Amino acid sequence: MRMTRLIRIQLAIFMAISLTALTVMGLGYVRLPTLLFGVGHYAVTVQLPEAGGLYQRGNVTYRGTEVGQVKDIQLTDTGIEAVLSLRSDVKIPSDLDAQVHSQSAVGEQYVALLPRNDRSVPLKSGDVIPRDRTSVPPDINALLDATNRGLQAIPADNLNTVVDEAYTAFGGLGPEISDLVKGATTLAIDARKNLADLTNVIDNVAPVLDTQTNTADSVQLWAARLANVTKQLQTNDAAVQGVLQKGAPAAQEVRALLDRLSPTLPIVLANLVSIGDVAVTYRADLEQLLVLLPQGAADFQAISVPNRSITGYKGGYLSFNLNLNIPPPCTTGFLPPQQERAPSYEDFPDRPAGDLYCRIPQDAMFNVRGARNTPCETRPGKRAPTVKMCESDENYVPLNDGYNWKGDPNATATGQPIPQPPLGSPASRAPATPPAAAPPPIAAAEYDPATGTYIGPDGHVYTQANLGHKPGEEKTWQTMILPPQGN
User: Fold this and answer.
1) Other beta carbons less than 10 A from residue 41's beta carbon
2) Higher pLDDT, residue 304 or 182
3) Greatest Cα-to-Cα distance within the chain, rounded to the nearest angstrom
């Protein structure tokens, strides 16, 4: 056969490509330099109690990354020594554990290098990982034998029942179980991210647990009382059921009552708000009154019942000693006699502007319980005739040191103004305070109790028949909370 020039060129190109492919395969895939001469690798010996299915050319991983292969496995008097060929470009700490794991259920064992810290010196050629730092997986045959013996120990009927019940319990729950596994995985990942906080909680949970231990008696007492309450509820179950069953109708009746009282109830509640503010201010006085009331009632009972013994004591008696004009009445601070209104008049003129009270000195011999000596509730130790004076820094100043009215006795046409404190007194020197803004009007309307007619906030006249009284109808406060009677 005669070879032409073209054929020779083609054969040369083919041989060049083949040699290149063989070189790439030997260097990159087969790794002949490493396999034959150990180029770029160093050897480390691992002492194992047994092979555990490990074989030559098995993979070696560090932090889940392949870093070498098992070069040789040798039998010794105490176990197995596996020679690992590791890459020189990966620095592996020498303080580590070597564990043989199975990559799948059919075998494919590999060696996993798990460092204990990253501060130890790196491994070097010739290092030995001792046996107390290594582990191998359990023998699959022993595991299967133990499983077989366990299944044989379970009666077949019971095993069938377990399998059937397991199918009933978990059959068709694949998506739910998958979500549960995913949630557990997410929880584990989040716990890993917050490992420092979780560790802190575990380290500092001791004081909380100690608190629970120290309060064990209180917790037991609380549990005992809760058990007592529960027992009482169980004993009175019928009554509790009655309350629950009749509670809704009773609430509806109360709601209907409030609806019927809606025109007048807001007025009553608005008035109660003012009474509540006054009661809060005078709380200490009310408490003192309640304390002294029982003793006062006992004293009154003691003097109201006459003693019929030989002592002749007749108990409490009524005296008709009137003591007229002793002491004389106070006229200082009031209107002059020319402007006084006769008691026989039936008109109702407007009240004069200003405050009318006895303005004599506070230590005067008469009218000691007058308005000028009223104790200030919010300013202990101070006495003043008005709340405004109590709340301010102004002190009481008498009108004069006498006991008669000072002013113009002839000012009857235009009206004599009420005398004010004299100039130069602390009250007159006090800076004038601007008048406070008027409070908003209460959303209520007065009505005629005879007809039930009232004017609303919009200025229109309204009539509600159930507010009016019928002729001859009883007019008491009890009728306000009773439902309307039918004709």
Assistant:
1) 22
2) 182
3) 173
Strand partners, 111: 60, 100
Tens-digit pLDDT profile for residues 442-487: 445 566 766 777 776 666 777 776 666 665 555 565 565 555 555 4
Burial grade of 134 (CB within 10 A; 0-12, 13-18, 19 or more): buried
Terminal CA-to-CA distance of the chain, rounded, Å?
Answer: 139
How far apart, in whole angstroms, are the C-alpha atoms of residue 313 and residue 183? 94
Looking at residue 447, its pLDDT comes to 63
What type of residue sits at position 370? G
* pLDDT the model gives residue 404: 56
Which bin fits 163, alpha (ψ -120 to 50), beta or left (φ > 0)?
alpha
* 337 Cβ neighbours under 8 A, 6+ residues apart: 409
H/E segment holding residue 227:
helix 216-235
Tell me phi and psi for residue 101, to 5 degrees: -120, 165
Beta pairing partners, 353: none
Residue with tokens 């402007």: 339
Reported in sequence order, the residue ranges of 49-119 that DSSP labels E, i.e. its strands, are 59-62, 65-75, 80-87, 96-104, 107-115
Q: Is the dihedral of CA 165, 167, 171, 174 positive or negative?
A: positive
